[in-house]
Amino acid sequence: MSTLRMNTTTRYVLLVFIVIIGLHSILSFTHEEYGRATSLKRITGQIPWSSTSSIPEQYYHPNPAVNATRRANATILMLARNSDTDNAVRSVRELEDKFNKNFQYPWVFLNEEPFSEEFKRRVSNVISGPVEFGLIPHDHWFQPDWIDEAKATAGREKMVQDRIIYGGSVSYRNMCRFNSGFFYRHSLLQKYKWYWRVEPDVHFHCDIEFDPFLYMEDNDKVYSFTITMYEYYATIPTLWDTVKKFTDMYPQFVSSDNSMGYLSDNGGETYNLCHFWSNFEIASMDFWRSEAYTKFFNFLDEAGGFYYERWGDAPVHSIGAGLFARKDQIHFWDNIGYEHNPYTHCPRGSGNWEKGKCACDPKRSFDFDGYSCMRQWERISPFQG
Ligand SMILES: Nc1nc2c(ncn2[C@@H]2O[C@H](COP(=O)(O)OP(=O)(O)O)[C@@H](O)[C@H]2O)c(=O)[nH]1
Ligand SMILES: [Mg+2]
To answer: Which of 111, 165, 276, 295 gets the highest tally of CB atoms within 10 A of its CB?
Structure first.
């Protein structure tokens, strides 16, 4: 008896369900408005956690709202030597193919020596939009006179003995200092707010058919990354103490919603060496031009650690953005597949790898490497892909 009653109830429920589904289908087809209002995509798009993670359709090419009528005040920036020509051309060609052929953002190339005609000819040949080549002013690049050369030499020799990568190189130190505090002051960059930093010999593994600059602008971001890892302690032994001196002097610059939980495991007492890998950056130059970062960079520069030690632009930018911006102003791009030897970030969020037609292997993404700081980042900004 009870089995028969259950069956009848079940059959009744099923019938009602089928009628509702049928009605919904008919209405969706016959009434466009109804279909739009009730589509699953629209409903899930209204849930806050799902719309913050993936990039909304409005930023995708060929959406005319993005491509034809709206562009960000942005440039793609590469620092390179004439000897980097082959690798520079390869990086440019890849980013043009994967992204910029649809957007035609202008490129700027900078060098402390004049670019050769060969460099300019080879690079211009693979670029779809405008391109400019700039010379870096002497004072923005070379070691300042007030650096104690004996102390700097001793620091380099110690690092060579300790086999620290680029430990003996002065030009590498010039480059790190320039990227930390000077590039955004270059005359060719004054007209731009946003930049995308690209290096020679990097790879983009997925189609990037959305406009990352507009996404950042609309969502009040200032800095973004694809890979995060630990710095070599030997290159920055006194950096964190210098940072603490600065924040003690200027507590007003530290955001109340900062990323200290990513930079430190003990509330700021010591630095855990986590940084955003700055060979890829999409960020706001206005943030670096702000009073907080300007005073911060000058304070670090006066301490001399770019030459007495080997402070990298990656920890300097990461600490600057991590302390002076809100944590929600720093964005992790899961959907940009990126490789700089020897590490690759490959998308892991739902559908990102497929949507970007990515060529990388998601299993081998650096995100899962023991040397990645993704766990520290996700402590303060849970993954939402
Ligand atoms: N113009 C110029 N660019 C440099 C110099 N050293 C490094 N770069 C550029 O600075 C960036 C980082 O240098 P790279 O050798 O890739 O350092 P790594 O990524 O830390 O191994 C790249 O864009 C290089 O082309 C230099 O002496 N002069
Ligand atoms: Mg490099």
So the answer is: 276
